[in-house]
Design the sequence.
RNA sequence: GGCGGCGUACCCAAGCGGCCUAAGGGGACGGUUUGCAAAACCGUUAUUCGUCGGUUCAAAUCCGACCGCCGCCUCCA
């Protein structure tokens, strides 16, 4: 079975056929950098990270572009209100570019912690002002846009396909529109390509229409075209951007180029808190950093970034996910369970007897892999994919109890964990941060000394002393576990 | 008002016409193991999928109505 994905444009599950054999151009709408990234960003970019990773697993050479919006757009409606980055800049008494710089850094930091692969290109909107002006000019020249008083608007009535992505038509929208009519526009549905800047607007550029700044929708069209071409395979983003943002991107791009802009539109759904969308505007968001440090009243503890990732993968990307501390705690427990098994497995490879890998285990692994691949090919069903990892955990634990299991058998399982759990899902790291290996040698030695002291106390039936040692270590985040055969292992439990 | 989506066990969540008397995780309870823990293992926890109808040999899955919740139509992941 090949890859099938849900295309928002056609509202159907479609076979994935790239424009060019073996290559995929993928553009994902990035964040506007005026605040710390929150759990919603996590769901968004983990979702697309998985898609990129899966395409690469399938052998495609993927060019992954994800922009950074560092020009503030407007806080209330399309034609008035304040630039959000400028607003934050005033608040922090910094230059808008300093704000963008700082939150861009924070975004990358948190995405790295979530184990998202970096985009191949992270273009900034401010780095593409000439190209944006060029596109506006093209649209004016072709008669799709008009200038009024230093601002340029796209004339929606000139573009027949407007509404094809979101399934709306202009008349219906106007009936219930919440937007105040802007007198400059020919029609309320028209949208700004270029806005005239007032003198006190910090971010502004020269243009054929005077000093101004670009409209929000413009950057994605421009950067997508510049780095991936006039028609791209995949464009991703949040469902809330389906309209107007993506609809406007299509109108601009197709009007200018005369060819289809995007073949497959992929939209992920929102993260909610108590059933309400989590958003910067709503102020109900929990930042990723707060989750990783436990610094939020809604959280009972700090969570592993990869446990957050696992929580996100636990549901389908097109479904809303209601966030709760309990759900995250459950994901953390599940993550720990996989981590325990994988670490035990890797430790065992060293001491297990040599010999050929067990054929029946290899067959089980193949069956698991097939199930995993089918699930991922079915519109990226990560929930099933994660469940396959748990099946592998079961196999692992079963074999760990059998002293005859060979190192080759364990190696085969580890390879599959690395491939599916690591390369694809990104929830099984190459090396666990707190694993008793490598640079933790000294700690391993010291804890080993304590384990010996405790073993001695236990031999003397001095359980008070042995329990004291265990409690003491536990208070410092080190858990001792007595395994069958008189072996005691340790692990960290922050 | 228009457009879209969701409602599955105590919680999260997959399944989208027959292999479903419904994956997987968490939790809870019982058992094995253990000096005690921890971890692991075994077992139990939805004859039922918001409600009511309909289509079908067959429905959680399709259709209709109703109830509840959410998103978009203003910036937003």
Sequence:
């Amino acid at each position: 079975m090949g890859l099938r994905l849900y295309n928002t444009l056609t509202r159907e599950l479609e076979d994935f056929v790239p424009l060019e054999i073996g290559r995929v151009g993928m553009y994902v709408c990035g964040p506007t950098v005026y605040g710390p990234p929150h759990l919603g960003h996590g769901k968004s970019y983990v979702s697309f990270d998985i898609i990129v990773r899966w395409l690469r697993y399938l052998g495609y050479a993927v060019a992954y572009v994800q922009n950074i919006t560092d020009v503030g757009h407007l806080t209330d409606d399309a034609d008035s209100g304040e630039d959000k980055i400028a607003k934050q800049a005033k608040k922090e008494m910094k230059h808008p570019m300093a704000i963008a710089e700082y939150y861009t850094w924070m975004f990358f930091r948190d995405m790295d912690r979530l184990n998202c692969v970096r985009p191949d290109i992270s273009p900034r909107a401010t780095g593409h002002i000439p190209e944006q002006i060029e596109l506006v000019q093209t649209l004016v020249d072709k008669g799709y846009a008009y200038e009024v008083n230093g601002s340029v608007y796209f004339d929606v009535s000139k573009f027949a396909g407007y509404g094809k992505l979101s399934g709306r038509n202009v008349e219906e929208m106007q009936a219930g529109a919440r937007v105040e009519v802007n007198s400059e526009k020919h029609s309320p549905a028209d949208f700004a390509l270029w806005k005239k800047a007032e003198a006190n607007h910090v971010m502004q550029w020269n243009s054929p229409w005077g000093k101004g700044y670009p409209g929000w929708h413009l950057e994605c069209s421009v950067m997508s075209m510049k780095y991936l071409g006039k028609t791209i395979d995949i464009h991703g983003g949040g469902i809330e951007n389906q309209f107007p943002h993506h609809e406007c991107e299509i109108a601009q791009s197709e009007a200018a180029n005369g060819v289809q802009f995007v073949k497959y539109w992929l939209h992920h759904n929102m993260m909610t808190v108590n059933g309400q969308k989590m958003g910067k505007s709503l102020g109900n968001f929990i930042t990723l950093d707060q989750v990783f440090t436990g610094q939020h009243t809604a959280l009972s503890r700090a969570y592993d970034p990869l446990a957050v990732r696992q929580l996100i993968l636990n549901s389908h990307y097109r479904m809303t996910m209601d966030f709760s501390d309990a759900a995250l705690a459950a994901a953390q427990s599940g993550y720990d369970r996989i981590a325990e098994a994988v670490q035990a497995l890797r430790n065992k490879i060293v001491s297990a007897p040599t010999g050929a890998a067990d054929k029946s285990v290899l067959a089980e692994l193949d069956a698991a892999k097939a199930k995993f691949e089918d699930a991922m090919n079915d519109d990226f069903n990560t929930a099933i994919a994660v469940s396959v990892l748990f099946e592998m955990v079961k196999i692992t634990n079963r074999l760990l109890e059998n002293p005859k299991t060979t190192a080759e058998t364990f190696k085969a399982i580890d390879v599959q964990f690395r491939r599916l759990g690591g390369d694809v899902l990104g929830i099984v790291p190459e090396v666990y941060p707190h694993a008793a290996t490598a640079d933790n040698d000294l700690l391993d030695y010291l804890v080993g000394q304590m384990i010996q002291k405790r073993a001695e106390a236990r031999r003397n039936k001095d359980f008070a002393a042995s329990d004291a040692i265990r409690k003491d270590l536990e208070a410092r985040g080190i858990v001792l576990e007595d395994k069958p055969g008189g072996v005691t292992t340790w692990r960290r439990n922050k």
Remarks:
- The longest strand of chain A covers residues 232-238.
- Chain A has three domains: 4-268, 288-424, 438-492.
- Chain A has a mean pLDDT of 91.
